[in-house]
Each structure stands twice: as structure tokens, then as C-alpha cells.
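It is worth pausing here to work through a concrete case rather than discussing structure prediction in the abstract. The textbook approach is simple: state the sequence, then state the predicted structure, then interpret. We follow exactly that order.
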Amino acid sequence: MNKTDANHVEDVPVLEMWKRLKSDPKAVLVDVRTRAEWAFVGVPDLSSLGRDVLLIEWQTFPDNRIATDFADRLEKALTERGVQKDDEIFFICRSGGRSRMAAEAMAAAGYRHCLNVAEGFEGPMDADRHRGQIAGWKFEGLDWVQG
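Step two, the predicted structure:
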């Protein structure tokens, strides 16, 4: 595998990610949104799979600066859970942008199966500028809890 392939991050739809999480007990979901989003918008609920979501901010709130220690904090959390560099790691944010950057950072750190949940937790805005109406975790009716 060349360096370009090693750092490739695949975009996956929400329902594909859910199917893969259900079938692979080693797969992990990392929510990279801010603490405010977790508290006010909610977080994915994996309790039906007997698991929880790793909550690691990609950007700090309220200044929205990229957390320079993101990769170190996530690597520590993954190691504590026994996650290997070949295990699937799914990254989710509001609509797929920050999660893609986070997945690329972890792919560059040597994790070989970093996947971006392209539709995110809330999905893109509709014509009325509302999220959760077109695509995403909530739109698909997957379980979530208020943070």
C-alpha cells in the first residue's frame, strides 16, 4: 500500500456505517463535534450494540480552533479501548466536514481504516436552512440521546 492509499479516507452513508458497526464488534464511532453540540443537539446512542461513542472534540468551543492535541487524545482513548490500527474507526460530526479532517489526521497517524460518516449527525441544510430533514443520523431514525 502506498502512502496515498494509507491516508485515504472513505466516505460512508449513515446506514452503511450503522450496518458495519453492528456486524463488527471492534469497530468504533468517534463523534468529533463540540461539547456544546453534544449537550444541545444530542449524541449517537450505541447502547443497543452494547457500546458507547467516543466523544473527542476536533475543534474547541467557543473559539472553534482545531484542537492541536486531537490525535494524541484520540490515540490514548483508542489504546485504552484496545482499538488496533487495523480496526474500523468511523468519524462523525454535524454534516461530514470536520469528521473528514479528523479521519484524515488519524489516517496520517497510522490508523488504516478511518471512515467519514458523510451525512453526519444532522445532515445538510434543506431549502428552509434546517438540518435533520434530508439526511444524517437523526433523519435516518437511529437512536440518539440528549448529551
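Step three, interpretation. The chain has one domain: 3-145. The two ends are 39 Å apart (CA to CA).
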